[in-house]
Amino acid sequence: MLQALGLGPAEEAIYTALLARPTASAQDLARHTGLEKAETTRILLDLATRGLVAVATEAGSGAPDSADCGAGRQPARYRLTPPSVALAPLLVEQRNALHRAETAFSMLTEQYRSTAAHSAGSVVEVVVGVEQVAHRFHQLQRGAQRELLVFLVGAPIAVPREEADMSENSALDRGVDFRVVAAKDYLDGHEVARDVRAAMMAGLELRLVDSLPLKMVVSDRERAMVPLDMADSGGEPSAIVVHRSGLLTALVHLFEKEWAQARPLYNTTTGVRAEATADQQPTEGELEVLALLLAGISDRRAASQLGLSIRTVERRTRRLMDLAGADSRLQLGWHAARAGWL
Question: Which range, of 115-119, 283-287, 303-307, averages the lowest pLDDT?
């Protein structure tokens, strides 16, 4: 835990052992941690120099922990300096270091882009082989900070579904906006439908179409990955990674076009169902949210009762307000009563 603040494993062991007692000598701490007494003494002196530890008592004079206890000296006892005081500078230092690293990352990225912009070959990167394709796929998903746009078509080839699900869960946990358009046959199979339902409850937005022209993932609208025909690479899985360019803009435009025409999917008590294209009535899941909201229950509590994420509750509430043409939840309640939604 404290290694993130610059303490080594042995230092952390001494620090946490001292945390559990008011004061302790080097011999006490060595016995508790299993470290040598000489090493424990050295670590304590170093921690004291850094202001993390203070000498609590020290009879006589001379260096702490003198072995001359028989001459009347008692081993020095140490206590922690209050962590809120001692560790705060370390935390600030680590934050500043992270900020410097982020700044350097941005500068290097922009420098690379400006250099790569002069080379047409840098716009498209060809990746061949199962391991390389899987590696680049995970890079795109795990590196996304704002948005992921995905086309799902057919069975996975280079990246097993369970590995894709792990990257997907990681992105959702980071709060990445995750939108997926899937071909209608993608949900065939109980395992897939179950995993999709769990992802939707975590915040993934999914829509369904009859067919899609390609499989694709777009990360932060800065990079995209599109599989190639295996026949083009001698039977091995292959893909192209597209960097910022007119081609990437076209892929994003294609996604938005398919998204606008696709049918939204929603969770029900029996599984995942597609919403009819012409249906402007609330879905079953949206009505469940509406009933709780009109009862005065907060979004967070509604999410807990329905087993949904807060983002899903907010998204369903937003769509209800769009259907009702309401600017407030009060107007939404009035429209719901007038339209006979509940």
Answer: 115-119
